[in-house]
Design goal:
186 residues; alpha+beta; three-stranded antiparallel β-sheet; 3 helices; 40% helix
Length: 186
Amino acid sequence: MTTTRTRNGLLGLLSRLRANRRGAVAIEFAMVAMPVFMLSIAIIELGMMMVHSVTLSGALEEGARKLRTGEIFNASDPEQAFEDAVCGDSLYLVDCDDIVFDVRSYDDYDSVDLSPPSMGAGGMPSAPAFDPGDAGSVTVARVYMRFEFITPMIGSFFEDTHNSRMVQYTAIVKGEPWTNSGGGGS
């Protein structure tokens, strides 16, 4: 009798535990909440990175237009005028201190060098230059920026060791015929 009673007691306990579903939703939510939350944050971050990218692209186009027309040479410091043109059009989404500007001029389109720059510490170009050339020159303007992710390990999806993503845009323009009326031209 004690064996039957123990078996019934054990089976009864197991059947009561199986039937008791109180707290199951809380446990399931605890298991699923963190991955869903991290995925949501990652999606928002990727969206923010895309907004930064599009903003930086448009801002570079504005700066390249001023290179093409020679407008930046009317300033006493053309390099600062170019940086201000790019940063002023970035809708304050991009911190200009985080941007590396690289502007180089060439005689014609065939001599343009679009090879990737050598990267220095922090994964940014190590030897940027500012040489916009003159009227008629082909000018390559590049901007580089790192978008830092908050979500852990999302940078590793981009094969980057800095938990960030390099955002780079290039604009190639040929200078229009213009005359330098300012003090800072080449």
